[in-house]
Write a structure and sequence with these properties.
single chain, 117 residues, mainly alpha, 51% helix, 0% strand
Length: 117
């Protein structure tokens, strides 16, 4: 993981992303950023191919991250999901700070390189 990806993952896990203070969504001015609103606003369930019955899809996937290098067959889905997850956290970080995010450069490539070796 790059430093910025690690920072976003840690801030999500600590509850600091989207942020502790109520702040209006730049897309929906009558809604404040919250985890639940972020899931709807950024279409997280759809983008991660997860059912809506999973309450927190980002934490759900972070809990599934391998602690040790898995077999190639067990790591196959991460090649699809990890770049999407990194992009969602990247967008959320920028949107919460009222900025349009630049396209992320090779999101999640370090983890994917580790999994493919």
């Amino acid at each position: 993981m790059t430093c910025s990806e690690r920072s976003r993952v840690l801030r999500w896990r600590l509850g600091w992303l989207p942020g502790g203070k109520p702040k209006e969504c730049i897309f929906h001015p009558y809604h404040n950023w919250s985890r639940r609103h972020a899931f709807d606003c950024l279409h997280v369930h759809h983008r991660l191919y997860l059912p809506r019955s999973i309450e927190d899809p980002i934490s759900f996937l972070l809990n599934l991250l391998p602690l040790h290098k898995p077999r190639p067959t067990a790591s196959h889905s991460w090649f699809t999901l990890w770049p999407i997850l990194c992009t969602i956290l990247h967008e959320l970080d920028y949107y919460f700070h009222d900025e349009c995010p630049p396209p992320p450069v090779d999101p999640g490539v370090k983890l994917l390189n580790w999994l493919s070796k």
